[in-house]
What we know:
The structure holds two protein chains of two kinds. By secondary structure, chain A is of the alpha/beta class. Chain A folds into two domains: 2-186, Rossmann fold; 209-273, no CATH class. Chain A is built from nine helices and eleven strands. A nine-stranded mixed beta sheet of chain A has the order 9-8-7-10-6-1-4-5-11, sandwiched between helices. Chain A has a two-stranded antiparallel ribbon with strand order 2-3. Chain A is globular. Chain B: Residues 231-261, 303-334 form the 4Fe-4S ferredoxin-type domain. Chain B: The chain crosses the membrane at residues 65-87, 93-113, 134-152, 158-176. Chain B: This is (Fe-S)-binding protein.
Amino acid sequence: MRIAVLLSAGRHPVSGKPTLPRTEAQAIRMAAGLGAATGLHVGPDAFPAEAALGHGLDYAAHIACAAGSDPVGPLAARIVSDAPDIVLAGRRGQGGDETGLVPYAVAARLGVPIVPDAVAMRPATDGLVEIDQALPKGVLRRLVVRTPVVVTVHPAAPPPLPFAFGKARRGSIERIAAAPTDLAAGAPPPEERPYRKRPKMMRAAGGSAADRLKAVTGEATAGGAKVLDHQTPEDAAKEVLAFLRRVGVLAPASAAGPGRRPAASEDASRHATS
Amino acid sequence: MTAAFAALAFLMTGLATAQTLRRAALWRLGAAAPVDWVSGLAKLPKRYLVDVHHVVARDPYASRMHAIVAGGLLAATMLAGFAILPPLAGSRFYWSVVALAFAMTLAGSLLVGARRYPKTPKRLSKGGFQRLPFLLLAYAAGGTAAALSIALSGPENPVLLVALLVAAGGGLGLAYEVKDGPMRHAVAGALHLIAHPRQKRFEQGRPDAALLPLDLDAPKLGAELPADFTWNRLLGFDACVQCGRCETACPAFAAGQPLNPKRLIQDLVGALAPDGPTYQGSPYPNARPVAGEAGPLFKVIGPDAKIHPDTLWSCTTCRACVEECPMMIEHVDAIISLRRHQTLELSAPPQKSFETLANLREADEPGARPLTARGDFAAGIELPVISKRGEADVLLWLGDGAYDMRYGRTLRALIKLFHEAGVDFAVLGEEERDTGDLARRLGDEATYQGLAKANIETLQKYRFNRIVTSDPHALHALRNEYRAFGGDFEVVHHTAFLLELIDAGKLPTGKLDAGTVTYHDPCYLGRYNGETEAPRKVLDRIGLSRVEMARHGRRSMCCGGGGGAPIADIPGDARIPDLRMAQAAETGAEMVAVACPTCTAMLEGVTGRTAEIRDVAELVLMAVETGRADEPRRAAA
């Protein structure tokens, strides 16, 4: 099985030094248990590729491109030409040019499924891979997915192997020049919205602490589940809305009058900008 | 028949040489090391008679025993060899001198036997060593009888043949044992003294304990195979006489962690020569199972090899074993060499140190705390930063104790004393990174060298006369280990600095009435730097009545905090600091004076302790404050 690990240029939250994001180092360890892994970094600086070698990769490709240009195009092009079975990536951006939504954009560009938050992976029979996916509250879900697939790694996966200087020294980095792409051309323009006051989730719950916890976490007890099958879309939507109002995610129908919203949001946005 | 006696001496020498050469073939598998044979050979007598004797004499029985038996053996064999000269062979006086030498050996071999029979002490290995007294006895008794019979009744008498045969049995046995048996220590020990990898330890007044820098461009980092050690280190392992002094000194051994320095050295010997005799000394406590596969070109560390990784990571690098070793073996160097390979090449430091090593690499600090927060402990006290002034007389190196709430009290006391004494000092502030000591002891030489070079560059930007630090680990790094990277600084430990201030009259101290105190020597100050007197003098100056623990000074016991051992956290039966505090309790002292942030944390973390833990600086501040409170009273009187 061939694996490509997407590497991004993170920053240490305290020192601000360039750092390979932890989840990507974890991805390298996970990839080592699956098959031949190579690293792939698109960006101005080769640092993430070098760090990845120290964490256990033998080979990484660094596609050089200008700071601020869109990495999705070069990444997708490289993945298409390499055709790995699995693309492993970090999970979200926490600092610097960390991966953020790039895995999702790459999966969309490639037209392959993306499975977020893997904690363990095992190759299954021909072209299938078994993924343990982390869900909230420690729940694991086992998925069997057909490759190729993009998978992001959850922090609860086995901890990364420490950086080893000798390994970093032994591994090799291939430097590739990419055709410059403009970030603005590739990515959708960022959207700005006025601040919206969040509905209070606790209000509807009341009762004991256990009730409130249940309301917030939405614990699905067997008795609470309501299975509706073969509904018309309108009925289904009504049911979903009613449920959301009941657990307090949406404000009750009477409070959602159009008159109060803009005033509240204006007020809040002044707060946010001041 | 007198010629046969001389022939025996030559035969023994020849056999011993042949056996040595067979063994030397194994040493030659090791890496090359430059050795100055001529100067080493010239210095051998001094090293043996002074340096080795100094260590051996700590056990007076062993010292007397060894002097008599080794001196007798050498003298008797050499004298017997002279019997090839006809004028001597005919002299009865000569033969009585030979008899005297053999009689001395005989007395010595009885002492050797008495040490092992009827009951062998726990720290001594058995195996071949149990045979040794009998071989010595045979050689000495046979030699005495033979020489005596020639001296008394001439070269032709019936006793002589039998006596010579007995002597030959013993003597040739001893010579044969030079390759794999107990007698190897004599030949390898002498060669080791000549070709010792740390020549400086015999020459300067203070110990030579700085780790040797690792060439990060070397084809292989650290030692993986026995053959990766330099040949003179392999020779050093072979010099081990299995006396077990190291195991009685080793804190990890005492705490039931799977480390026994003697066993470790014997495992390294066994890894080089797997067909040698099996080890018959005390094992690693709670030994982890290993498959035990070995060979000069087979890896040393691993559950499938000779030494389990837990053994490697139990070491606190306190150097107690090195200090106690009469054969001058460098255990800690070997451990660090093996650790370097684990960490740098295999990504296999102890699991619990992963995060610490990552923090040191990525945030220059083992706890990933912001460097700007290092001075936070001093809130409310003036703490001058050198970048604002450019120069100072004294640069105060805070170390990572500054982040610790408890140790902050010590540093505050020290800074108050500096202000009191009018010391012109400053700190590096946010420019101070970790010294990298921890990374280095955990085998991460690359991170260490990065930190060392960055710190040296920072320090060289500013003008100061001396560095003062309260952290012996930082002191050792800055003073001794940074030298290899171009950092040459005069570094003073805060206890020595306070002594200077007190003696110069800059710190008017009152007399403390705080009961008895015992001082715990930090390994990196006492054993690594030979500084044991200044802190004691400070305690005496402020009027404390001082008692000593059984283990103190350069033979002190580690608090368990060095070498990354608290981070590796290898489970044992007890905790090292608990053992040390029990030793402190034996003295009845109400207070344990410490001089190191790690010792402070380790010893204060002991539950149910009866003694208070106070840094020397805190005690001096107490004395200064007492003096200040007494002053108005004295003025009034």
